[in-house]
């Protein structure tokens, strides 16, 4: 739904005419230093910002790398901070906010944010803390040709239908393990639990507190949904993350997949996979579970933050430079690099899965200060359950115990 | 040497050791005694592209004030050492009371992260260390007997595993045991089981980690023993031969006793290295099946988002304690040998 709004707004902006648009880069002669993760959408945003405003700034540097979240708190702690802007996602914004390292952007948005959609603004308690520019979520990938061959009609939309389809494919002797999921130990294991826990209607914490809330019937139901799927997953699933699952998909070794929407573009392009795979890959909404209506997915955004520990004029120049890139011209040039939240985006086939998942009412990944601790506990303690060494109840009790230990040390619980 | 001369001679080394070894350990220890301040949490609402949701956030100003008053955090004493992520006294006690058999108790304790990691770390250390010593000695003796023309190249080849960066070496092996890799696919063919996966089985994963450990550290013991073999006195060997000793006997009764000080040295180094096993676990993505104490430190500092310094510090101290306990028998032995020779 939000994509439709964005598309309409984009068409409107197009009519207004942006040809004579000249970037407003804010105060001249300041320092702009951007840190972000290294993938095409962020390359597009930072690259456009640099092209627009590098001439206006005394210093303009863009640092894109892997595992940005491991260094960003240290990089923003000194005064002046190492970077003036960090490009973050839901979970990493809380990591910066916990240490008070990013500044509220209300004034800057007022001054430079004429092009921004209201839904791009990430507000916490009335303060704009980040400006989002792209969305992402997990969803279902399906191979229509293999499903047809196995006699499955349509694209499965619930966990039970996926299990039935996978069983049909196995029974037809086409593939022994038709399903791929990002189940790599650690972060991915925790994230898969989140997907199905939210789909079953669970909340990770007791309302308004840091008390854990996963060891309950909903948690057990979520784990059982996952277990029923994992039965059909590649035997190595506990060491597979996005790169591995994408590889299996492109090699034609999977017929059903729960993978990130951001991989859609790479899977559907003409590199890495045969025509047979790309032309029959369908991107659909994430499945619902347990008779509910919420898709098993978490919605993510990526967006821009401005460091707290820098001079106000550097902050202004940085914000102006980055926001100058968040417009229809940049999107027109890089339309298929991401599912943009910016005006002018034309959702293509690669965006269909995320759009359907968001429209189905999937939950956003929670922006809660202690969610990383819970996610880490889920990632390490649920593995025993997936390996079959432990019951769902015991594994969830371990999760709560591990989380409580960490949360006490971090000062969230007493 | 006069005490005074000795003091000035040792001073640079000693001060470097204090500065770079002792002080960091003290600092880590102090850090392990403190936990973070109570975070001041405020209930709020967060809005974004997907609508608004109620949430909580940290009141950074209030938390900052607490932090300024006591920059180290809240004093927690040794409680971090006893919590569930470490020695887990309460959980072990509970397991003892609630389990009706010894097996049940062991199962319950092995479910605790620290003990699970300790079991793997110790198994790894006690399998890899002796294998590396015995195989290293065997290769050294073998290479020593080679004709000089091919001796140089074989030494070079034997050293190769040591030259490969651990992370890279283990990644190569990791890809080889993949279901599509040369070892993984061969195993599947050999056992006629297309779903056989080294990465999915705990025992196979342990074996692979240990094989990697042996492969990677073998050159260290090999080259040390090879150097030692050059110092074996020829006349004693000849005397043994004249007395009718077989090759095996002169090996066990002359060469090995001569190399004993080196064996102690290699054992010390290997025990320390193996107890800190870390890189293979990360590159093999083996956390589901095997974790080590070092991996916990990494996990506390990197994976938890905002790092848990107290927990990482406590694990570091426990690792040091573990190394000390492991090394004590070897050190006592060396001390006795030293005293015997001195008198």
Structure description:
- The complex is a heterodimer of chains A (about 425) and B (about 350).
- Chain A is an alpha/beta fold and about 425 residues long.
- Chain A has 2 domains: about 1-135 and about 300-360, Periplasmic binding protein-like II (D-Maltodextrin-Binding Protein, domain 2, 3-Layer(aba) Sandwich), CATH 3.40.190.10; about 140-290 and about 365-410, D-Maltodextrin-Binding Protein, domain 2.
- Chain A has helices at about 1-15, 40-55, 70-75, 90-100, 105-110, 145-150, 160-170, 185-200, 215-230, 240-250, 265-270, 275-280, 310-325, 330-335, 350-360, 370-380, 385, 390-410, and strands spanning about 30-35, 60-65, 85-90, 120-125, 125-145, 180, 255-260, 280-285, 300-305, 340, 365.
- In chain A, strands 1, 2, 3, 4, 5, 6, 7, 8, 9, 10 and 11 form an 11-stranded mixed sheet that branches.
- In chain A, a hairpin with a 2-residue loop joins strand 4 and strand 5.
- In chain A, helix 2 (about 40-55) packs across helix 13 (about 310-325) and helix 8 (about 185-200) crosses helix 9.
- The two termini of chain A are about 40 Å apart.
- Chain B is mainly alpha-helical.
- Chains A and B meet through helix 4, strand 4, strand 11, helix 16 and helix 17 of A and strand 2, strand 3, helix 2 and helix 14 of B.
List the defining traits of the structure above.
heterodimer, A: alpha/beta, D-Maltodextrin-Binding Protein, domain 2, 2 domains, 18 helices, B: 343 residues, mainly alpha, MetI-like fold, two-stranded antiparallel ribbon, two-stranded antiparallel sheet, 4 strands, globular
């Amino acid at each position: 739904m939000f994509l439709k709004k964005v598309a309409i707004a984009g068409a409107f902006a197009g009519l207004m005419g942006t040809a004579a648009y000249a970037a407003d880069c804010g105060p001249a002669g300041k320092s702009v230093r951007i840190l972000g993760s290294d993938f095409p959408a962020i390359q597009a945003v930072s690259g456009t910002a640099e092209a627009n405003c590098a001439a206006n700034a005394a210093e303009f540097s863009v640092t894109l790398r892997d595992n940005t979240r491991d260094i960003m708190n240290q990089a923003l702690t000194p005064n002046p901070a190492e970077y003036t802007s960090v490009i973050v996602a839901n979970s990493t914004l809380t990591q910066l906010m916990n240490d008070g390292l990013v500044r509220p952007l209300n004034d800057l948005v007022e001054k430079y944010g004429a092009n921004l959609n209201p839904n791009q603004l990430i507000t916490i308690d009335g303060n704009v803390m980040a400006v989002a520019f792209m969305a992402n979520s997990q969803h279902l990938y399906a191979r229509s040709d293999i499903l047809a061959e196995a006699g499955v009609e349509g694209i499965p939309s619930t966990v039970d239908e996926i299990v039935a389809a996978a069983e049909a494919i196995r029974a037809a002797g086409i593939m022994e393990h038709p399903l791929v999921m990002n189940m790599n130990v650690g972060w991915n294991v925790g994230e898969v639990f989140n997907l199905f826990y939210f789909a079953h209607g669970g909340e990770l914490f007791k309302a308004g507190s840091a008390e854990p809330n996963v060891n309950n019937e909903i948690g057990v139901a979520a784990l059982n949904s996952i277990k029923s799927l994992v039965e059909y997953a590649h035997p190595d699933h506990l060491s597979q993350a996005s790169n591995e699952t994408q590889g299996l998909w492109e090699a034609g070794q999977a017929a059903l997949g729960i993978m990130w929407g951001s991989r859609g573009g790479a899977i559907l392009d003409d590199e890495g996979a045969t025509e047979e795979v790309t032309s029959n890959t369908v991107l659909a909404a994430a499945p619902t579970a347990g008779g509910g209506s919420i898709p098993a997915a978490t919605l993510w955004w990526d967006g821009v933050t401005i460091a707290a520990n820098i001079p106000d004029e550097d902050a202004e120049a940085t914000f102006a430079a980055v926001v100058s890139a968040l417009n229809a011209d940049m999107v027109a040039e890089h339309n298929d690099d991401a599912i943009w939240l910016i005006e002018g985006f034309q959702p293509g086939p690669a965006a269909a899965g995320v759009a359907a998942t968001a429209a189905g009412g999937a939950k956003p990944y929670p922006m809660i200060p202690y969610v990383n601790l819970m996610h880490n506990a889920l990632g390490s303690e649920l593995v025993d359950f997936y390996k079959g060494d432990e019951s769902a109840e015991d594994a969830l009790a371990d999760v709560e115990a591990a989380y409580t230990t960490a949360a006490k040390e971090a000062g969230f619980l007493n | 040497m006069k005490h005074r001369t000795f003091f000035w001679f040792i001073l640079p080394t000693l001060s470097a050791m204090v500065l770079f070894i002792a002080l960091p350990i003290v600092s880590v220890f102090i850090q392990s005694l403190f936990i973070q301040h109570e975070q001041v949490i405020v209930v709020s609402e967060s809005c974004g592209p997907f609508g608004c949701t109620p949430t909580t956030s940290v009141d950074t100003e209030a938390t900052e004030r607490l932090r300024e008053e006591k920059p180290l955090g809240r004093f927690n004493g040794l409680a971090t050492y006893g919590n569930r992520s470490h020695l887990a006294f309460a959980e072990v006690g509970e397991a003892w009371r609630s389990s009706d058999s010894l097996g049940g108790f062991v199962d319950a304790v092995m479910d605790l992260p620290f003990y699970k990691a300790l079991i793997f770390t110790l198994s790894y250390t006690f399998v890899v260390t002796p294998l590396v010593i015995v195989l290293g000695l065997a290769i050294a003796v073998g290479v020593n007997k080679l004709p000089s023309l091919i001796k140089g190249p074989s030494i070079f080849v034997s050293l190769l595993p040591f030259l490969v960066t651990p992370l890279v070496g283990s990644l190569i092996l990791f890809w080889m045991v993949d279901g599509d890799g040369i070892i993984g696919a061969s195993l599947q063919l050999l056992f006629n089981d297309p779903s056989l996966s080294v990465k999915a089985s705990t025992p196979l994963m342990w074996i692979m980690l240990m094989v990697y450990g042996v492969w990677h550290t073998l050159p260290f013991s090999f080259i040390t023993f090879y150097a030692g073999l050059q110092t074996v006195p020829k006349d004693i060997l000849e005397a043994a031969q004249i007395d009718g000793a077989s090759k095996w006997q002169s090996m066990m009764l002359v060469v090995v006793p001569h190399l004993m000080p080196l064996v102690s040295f290699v054992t010390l180094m290997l025990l320390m290295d193996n107890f800190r096993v870390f890189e293979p676990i990360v590159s093999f993505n083996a956390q589901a099946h095997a974790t080590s104490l070092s991996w916990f430190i990494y996990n506390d500092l990197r994976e938890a988002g905002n790092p848990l310094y107290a927990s990482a510090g406590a694990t570091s101290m426990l690792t040091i304690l573990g190394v000390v306990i492991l090394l004590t028998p070897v050190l006592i032995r060396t001390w006795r040998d030293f005293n015997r020779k001195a008198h």
